[in-house]
Records
---
Amino acid sequence: MINKNKSLLRAFVRVFALILVLSMMLVGCEEEPPKRTFPDYNNSNNSNNSSKDTIKPNNKPSNNNNNNSNSNSNNNNNTNNNSSSSGKKRVAITYDDGPHNVRTNAIVDELAKYGFNATFFVVGNRVDGKAYNGANAVKYAASKGNEIAIHAYTHNNYYDTCEKSVYNSELDKTYDAITDILPNAKVRLMRPVGGRITEERTADCDYAVIMWSVDSNDWKYKNDGQPGVNTIVNNVMSQVKDGSIILMHDIYENTYLATKEILKQLNAQGYEVVTVSELLGSPKAGVKYSKAS
Ligand SMILES: [Zn+2]
C-alpha cells in the first residue's frame, strides 16, 4: 500500500513538473503577429542579432531634423523633377512589412549617417501591437525625417481580390495606427500587398499608390548569409538609376546588412536617398507610381 502511494506520488510529481516546464516555455515565447500566407513573408526571422554598434560612418555626418512627423519637404513643390537643387541623382528606398524593433532602428541609424531618408510602408498590427515594439520604431524613424506610409494592417489580403470592406479596413486601421502615435503625420502613400491592386481601387484610393522600379528580392536571400547580402546589393546596384524607387523589407538582417553597403555605394556614386514624397514632388492620391518621371 505504501509502495502504491509512493508510485502515485511520483507520477503526480512528474506530471506537475511537465506542466510547469511547458507553461514556462509558453511564457518565454515572444508574441508573434498572425501567421502570414504569402511566400515572401513567412518565417520572418525575429532574432535580435543586429550588429548596429559596429557601423562605422565613412562619409558626411548625420543631418537629423528631429521633427516628430513625416517628412513634409515636398510642400509647395509641384515639380516632377527628381534631381535635387544640388543636381544630385536621387532615388527612394522603400521598406515594407516592418516595423521591426531592431532592424528598422538600425536602418534608420544607417540612413542618418549620410543625411539620407527612406520611406517605411508599415504593417499596422506591428505598429499598434506589442510584438515588435513597433510604435517606438516608427516614432524613431519619423523623428529622423523618414516618411511613414501604409502597407497593410494584417498583411493577409491582396487588394485585388479581397472584399471592399476588408480592403478599406486594412488601410483605415493602418492609418489610425500611424496617426495615433504621430498625430501630425501626413500619410500620403500606400503600397499594396504583393503590388496587387485593381485599377478601380487605385483610382478611388485616398493615397498615392507606390510601386517600385528596382526589386532587391531581399526576402529570397534573407537566410543566405553573406552571399545573400552580396546578391541583394548587386540586385539593387545593377538596376538603380536616377529616379528609381527601390523595394526592400526592413524585417530581415540581410536587408539591414545589404542596406549598409547599398548606401555606401549610392553615396560614392553621387546619389541622394530621399523619401518617396520628396522624389515624386507631389504624388497624387489615386495615381500609381513606380519611379520618378
Ligand atoms: Zn508586404
---
Amino acid sequence: MTVPVISARHISKSFGLHKVLEDVSLDVAQGEAVCLLGRSGSGKSTFLRCLNMLERPSSGVVFVQGRPMGYRERGGKLIPLSAAEESEQRRHLGMVFQQFNLFPHFTVLQNVMEAPLRVLRRPRADVRDEAMALLERVGLAGKAGAYPNRLSGGEQQRVAIARALAMKPEAVLFDEPTSALDPELVSDVLAVIRSLVESRITTVIVTHEIGFAREICDRFIFIEGGSIVEEGPAERLSGGAVLGELVGVPVVAAREITARIAGAFLT
Ligand SMILES: Nc1ncnc2c1ncn2[C@@H]1O[C@H](COP(=O)(O)OP(=O)(O)OP(=O)(O)O)[C@@H](O)[C@H]1O
Ligand SMILES: [Mg+2]
C-alpha cells in the first residue's frame, strides 16, 4: 500500500481548558482533494494549522509522506524538533490563507521567489524562471513587477497560491481561500484551484463553497465540535447549500444538531 501524503493520527488540541479538536484522524492519498466543511468555530482552521505545525497538537501526530511533523524518530521514540527544524519541515505543506498574507514591501515576483531563495537557498536564476512559470500558471505573469497593494484581492490570492507552489510542497492546504474576496473575484481563484486539483496536486481545502467542493473534491469531511461527524464522497454534497446560512444555529446538543446540519448538505 502506498503511504498517504498526509496522515493525521488522533489529533486533539486544547487552548487552555477549551478543547477545540478531539481525536481527529484523516488520511489524504497522493493526488486526492479533500474538502473540510463545518460551521464557524468547529475547528477547521485549527485542524489545518495542526497539519503543518502552525499549531502543535496537544496530542496525536501528523505524518507527511510517513515523516512525523514536529518530531524525529530515534530508537522508536519521537523526539520534538527545534523551532528552526520545525519551520524547515513546514515547507512540505503549502498553505494558502483567507487573508493572502503577501509581503507588502516585495513585488509579486519577489513574493514568489522569497522562500525558495531564503529557505531552500536555491540559485536565483532557476528560482526566477520557476516563479515566472508559476505566475504564468495563475494568470499573473504581467503583474510580476507590481506590489501587492496594486492588485485586486483575487490577484493577491493567486500570487499567494503561486508562492505556496514555489516550495514544491507535497500538498497544499487552503483555508477559505475565497471568503475574503468580492463575489466577482471568486471565480478566477476557484479556476486556479480547480486546475491544481486537475493536475493531481494533493489538496485539503476548507471552504464554504459547497458547489465548488462537490465539483472538484474527491471526498468531504464534516467537522462539528472538533470531531469528524460525517465523511464521504463529494458527490453526496448537495450543490445549492451555503454553509454560512447555518451560522447562528444554537448548539444545544451538538451531535444531534450536527446530524441534521450534515443532512442539509447531503443528497
Ligand atoms: N489561538 C487560539 N487561542 C484560543 N482559542 C482559539 C485559538 N484558535 C482558535 N481558537 C478557538 O478554537 C475554536 C475553533 O476555531 P477555528 O478557527 O479552528 O474554527 P473554524 O472552524 O476555522 O471557524 P471559521 O469557519 O469561523 O473560520 C474557536 O472557538 C476559537 O475561538
Ligand atoms: Mg477558520
